């Protein structure tokens, strides 16, 4: 599924423009944290004036754009996604990240996964008492996760004001992660317990289609997923307005990736449990797409409206109708360490499927 490598943590027409109640924001530049240029050229700000306010833009769209065609592209107001420069990384920060990750996984195992000490099995047993139908239990688990996950995301601004950005991220992850693990494990353990609707696993080309679809789906991970130091609250978490890379194809890549993942797994498994899981997950991510636009409109105001006009929810729609202009060397926005890491991890997850299935089965959830 999309919240991790099997989750692991965005199809239709764009939602109605959101009109924030808060005071109107003037269009401001959205710059990433200062970093050393990755090659000979980098993003350079330039300025121009309008009647009511000064707009600050980024003049380049990706790495190494020096050709004349790039000068014709509209200037960016958002951030360059998936940019990663080893030269700017702090070893201390990554040591903190490793320590935090180890502590989180240890607590998750003791408090939730281990059946002798954790509450994960008790939670699954409690939900399972609601119905003898695996389909209904699957939908309820997704509904619980979606309500908590999207609910905490919706009140993020208020929560961060009360607790601070880092403590709220810890709360958000600490509640969402166990529920995500429970939902994934239940799906793995009961994926073949439903009513068989079709059987295409032996059909010519189906395995290759499903494999390729799953592989592609992980390239639609939301760019903020790559900010591991922010995810772990080592760096202060921010809500970014991304505009390059996968965002040029679709404004809600996590939703799109989840839809691809669901369709591929439903085609392969072909039963009622897979259909129920797909309905729940796609519904959650459709709501997340609407909610994400709403929150970005409140936070970034006019800058988000600019990005919204030249992007689309349906993949490639803005490109095909001319609202999105791709740089000539657009491919360079993907030749970056985060996408290389996703490639390696996705291949690893595929080959480790038997290990994941065995580990889930041992939990007896």
Structural description of this entry:
The chain has 365 residues and is an all-alpha fold. The protein contains 13 helices and two strands, in the order E-E-H-H-H-H-H-H-H-H-H-H-H-H-H. The protein has helices at 91-113, 120-128, 134-154, 156-163, 165-190, 206-217, 228-231, 253-269, 272-300, 302-309, 317-320, 337-351, 353-363; strands at residues 45-49, 54-58.
Summary, kept brief:
By secondary structure, the chain is mainly alpha-helical. The protein has helices spanning 91-113, 120-128, 134-154, 156-163, 165-190, 206-217, 228-231, 253-269, 272-300, 302-309, 317-320, 337-351, 353-363; strands spanning 45-49, 54-58. The chain has one domain (88-363).
Overall average residue pLDDT = 84
Shape: globular
**Mind describing the biggest β-sheet?**
2 strands, antiparallel
Q: Please report the number of helical segments.
A: 13
Structural class: mainly alpha
* Radius of gyration over all CA atoms, rounded: 22 Å
Q: What percentage of the residues does DSSP assign to strands (E)?
A: under 5%
Amount of helix? 40-55%
Please describe the structure with a list of short key phrases separated by commas or semicolons.
365 residues; mainly alpha; transmembrane helix; globular
């Amino acid at each position: 599924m999309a919240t991790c490598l099997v989750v692991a943590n965005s199809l239709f027409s764009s939602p109605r423009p959101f009109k924030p109640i808060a005071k109107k924001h003037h269009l401001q530049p959205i710059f990433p944290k200062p970093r050393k240029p990755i090659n000979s050229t980098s993003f350079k700000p330039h300025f121009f004036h309008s009647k009511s306010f000064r707009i600050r833009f980024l003049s380049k769209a990706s790495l190494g754009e020096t050709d004349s065609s790039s000068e014709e592209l509209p200037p960016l107001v958002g951030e360059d996604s998936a940019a990663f420069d080893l030269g700017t990384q702090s070893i201390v920060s990554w040591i903190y990240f490793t320590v935090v990750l180890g502590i989180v996984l240890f607590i998750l195992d003791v408090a939730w996964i281990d059946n002798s000490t954790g509450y994960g099995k008790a939670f699954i047993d409690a939900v399972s008492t609601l119905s003898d139908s695996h389909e209904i239990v699957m939908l309820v688990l997704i509904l619980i996760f979606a309500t908590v996950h999207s609910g905490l995301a919706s009140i993020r601004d208020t929560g961060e004001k009360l607790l601070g950005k880092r403590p709220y991220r810890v709360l958000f992850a600490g509640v969402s992660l166990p529920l995500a693990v429970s939902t994934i494990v239940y799906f793995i353990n009961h994926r073949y317990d439903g009513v068989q609707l079709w059987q295409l696993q032996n059909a010519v080309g189906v395995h290759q289609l499903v494999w390729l679809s799953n592989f592609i789906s992980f390239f639609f991970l939301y760019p903020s997923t790559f900010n591991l130091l922010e995810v772990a609250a080592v760096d202060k978490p921010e809500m970014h307005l991304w505009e390059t890379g996968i965002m040029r194809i679709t404004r809600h890549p996590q939703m799109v990736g989840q839809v691809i993942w669901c369709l591929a797994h439903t085609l392969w498994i072909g039963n009622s449990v897979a259909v129920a899981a797909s309905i729940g997950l796609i519904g959650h991510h459709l709501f997340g797409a609407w909610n994400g636009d709403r929150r970005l409109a409140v936070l970034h105001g006019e800058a988000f409206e600019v990005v919204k006009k030249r992007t689309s929810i349906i993949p490639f729609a803005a490109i095909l109708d001319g609202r999105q202009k791709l740089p000539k060397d657009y491919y360079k926005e993907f030749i970056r360490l985060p996408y290389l890491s996703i490639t390696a991890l996705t291949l690893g997850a595929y080959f480790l499927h038997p290990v994941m299935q065995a580990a889930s089965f041992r939990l007896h959830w």
